[in-house]
Amino acid sequence: MIISVRDLLRLKGDAVWFVRPDTSVYDVLHELADKDIGALLVLEGGHIAGIISERDIVRKIASTEDFVLEQPVSAFMTKDVITISPAQTIEDCMALMTEEHIRHLPVVEGDKVVGLVSIGDVVKAYITSQEFMIEQLRKFIDGGGYNQ
């Protein structure tokens, strides 16, 4: 069973949490905690300006002695954002995330952000698809045929 990113968004929801580039890191940390998420898109005028993750903030803190929570997120965010389209598969997501060493992928259709998927979302969907395939094969081997 091939699961597209579009299918994954239908299952997990397509809510996109975001902040503006001038949002303080302090407010970003609160938003991440409140939403129980690991990353936020940074949007400016409806377009992706960057992405900020817990990891980005921790690395920045570790690399400086004068970290200030009131600094704008634009100083911490990843500006070269890698995206994926809804038509691509979760296997495409896994390959891209592995190759680029990233944990979050904005989903973009045309010039519109339609979702955000995390490595956890992708792995969960992949495991579900594998369990479905195993069950179908088990039924076939047992003589029940597919989809019975």
Spatial order of strands in the largest sheet: 1-2-3
Named CATH topology: CBS-domain
Going by CATH, what is the homologous superfamily? CBS-domain
CATH architecture: Roll
Task: Give a quick account of the main beta sheet: strands, pairing sense, barrel closure.
Answer: 3 strands, mixed
- Helix percentage range: 40-55%
Order of helices and strands: HEHEEHHEEH
Overall geometric form: elongated
Q: What value does the Rg take, in angstroms?
A: 18 Å
Count of spatially separate domains? 1
Structure, explained:
- The protein has 148 residues and is α+β, with helices and mostly antiparallel strands.
- Helix content is 43%, strand content 19%.
- The protein has one domain: CBS-domain, CATH 3.10.580.10.
- A 3-stranded mixed β-sheet has the order 1-2-3. It has a two-stranded antiparallel sheet with strand order 4-5.
- The longest helix has 23 residues.
- It is elongated and about 65 Å long.
